[in-house]
Amino acid sequence: MNDFDKAIAEAFPLVAAPKKEPLDARVGSGIRYVVGSNGLAREVMLPFMRVVHMVSGFGPKVNLPYGAVEPVAEMWFEGIPRELIREFKQAAVDALPNEVAGAFIWDECSNDFRFAKRETLVANGGYVSYREVKLEKGEHLVVDVHSHASHPAFFSSTDDKDDNGSMKFSLVLGNVDTPSVSSAFRLNLAGYTFPASIDADGNVEVKL
Predict the structure, then answer these.
(1) pTM
(2) Which pairing describes strands 30-36 and 14-16: parallel, antiparallel, or unpaired?
(3) For residue 59, what pLDDT band results from cuts at 50, 70 and 90?
(4) CA distance 126 to 82
(5) Contact at 8 Å (CB) between 30 and 15?
(6) Torsions phi, psi of 27, nearest 5?
(7) Are residues 43 and 111 located together in one domain of the fold?
(8) Are residues 59 and 101 located together in one domain of the fold?
(9) Torsion angle in degrees (nearest 10) through CA of 23, 24, 25, 31
C-alpha cells in the first residue's frame, strides 16, 4: 500500500462488527468506520463523548457475515448543570435587544462545567459575532450557545454554516424577553446533525 493510502487507513480505520460480542470502543480520540450486517456506521470518539451512528444501510440482497451495528451515544460527563443554562439566560436578557453568545466548557480532570460568555464584536437582534473563548489545559467546549433575542429559537442557515464540520452540541435560546423562553438543541458531528435534549437533571440524550 502506498504511503498516502496507508495514512488514510491508519487515520480512519475500517473494522467489522463482531457477531457474538459487543463492539469494543475505539481507543483514543478520532473516527473509524464499522461495517455490519445492517450497514456502514461511523464511530466518533471525543474526550467528552462517544457516538456510533449509521452512515448507510444495506439492501435485502446484501448478506454480510458480521454482527449488526448498534447506534449509541455515550457522554463522559455526568450532565450539564442547569445553572449554566440559567446563567446564559440571564446574559441573554441583559443583552437585549441584541443577541449574545457563550460556551459551556467541561474540564475532563475535575468533571466540572463552567459558563463562559463570549466577547461580542458585532450584534443586533438577528446576528452576533464574537471573540472565541480561551480553553485551559484539559478543557473542552461541549456546548456552543447563543440567543435569538426576542425571536424564536431555531437553527438558521448561518448557524448551519457555522456548525458545519464541528463536533459539539449547539443550543439556542429564543424569546428571552418573555416568560416562555424557547430553545433548540442539537449535536453537530463533522457533517451530521442529530436532535438532542437535556432533561431536568441535566442529562443529555441524542436521537440517532
Answers:
(1) 0.93
(2) parallel
(3) confident
(4) 25
(5) no
(6) -90, 120
(7) no
(8) no
(9) -60
Among residues 60, 66, 21, 61, which one has the least CA distance to residue 40? 66
**Rounded to an integer, what distance in angstroms lies between the CA atom of residue 203 and that of residue 120?**
29
Question: How many domains is the chain built from?
Answer: 2
Statement to judge: residues 61 and 91 lie in one domain = no
CATH assignment at residue 170: 3.40.140.10
Query: What is the domain range of residue 197?
Result: 82-206
Collect all residues with Cβ–Cβ distance below 8 Å to 143 and sequence separation of at least 6. 80, 103, 104, 168, 169, 170, 171
- Asked if 188 contacts 167 with a C-beta cutoff of 8 angstroms, the reply is yes
Give the whole-angstrom CA distance, residue 37 versus residue 54. Answer: 12
Residues 55 and 97 in one domain: no
Half-sphere exposure of 146 (CA within 13 A, CB side): 25
| pLDDT tens digits for range 86-115 | 999 999 999 999 999 999 999 999 999 999
| Nearest-angstrom CA–CA distance, 152 and 174 | 4
Q: Which three cell numbers stand for residue 162?
A: 457555522
Residues 21 and 89 in one domain: no
CA distance 82 to 99: 21
